[in-house]
Amino acid sequence: LLQLNHNLIGASGAICVVLGYIALVDTYQRKGIVVWVLLISFAPLVIGLPVAWYAHLIGFVLGWLMGMIKK
Predict the structure, then answer these.
(1) Are 23 and 29 in contact (CB under 8 A)?
(2) Which long-range contacts link 61-67 to residues 24+ away (Cβ below 8 Å)?
């Protein structure tokens, strides 16, 4: 399904966890955070850079779920 033939390094997935939590808690910034996460996930793919877009989205969802559980 997914061809994972590139190195996965960096902390962007972990940063997206924090952004997911902030987006849940802070409704004023929610729309901007969602747009930013989508841009950093898919814009590099358009120009052909191998980015772990799924790490960004999974991290965002995990942060959102952690916020839901904490409430």
Answers:
(1) yes
(2) 61/20, 62/17, 62/20, 63/16, 63/17, 63/18, 63/19, 63/20, 63/21, 63/22, 63/23, 63/24, 64/20, 64/21, 64/23, 64/24, 65/20, 66/17, 66/20, 66/21, 67/20, 67/21, 67/24, 67/25
Read off the amino acid at residue 27. Answer: T
pTM value is 0.83
- pLDDT attached to residue 1: 52
CA distance linking residue 64 with residue 45, whole number of Å: 24
In this prediction, residue 10 has a pLDDT band, given cuts at 50, 70 and 90, of confident
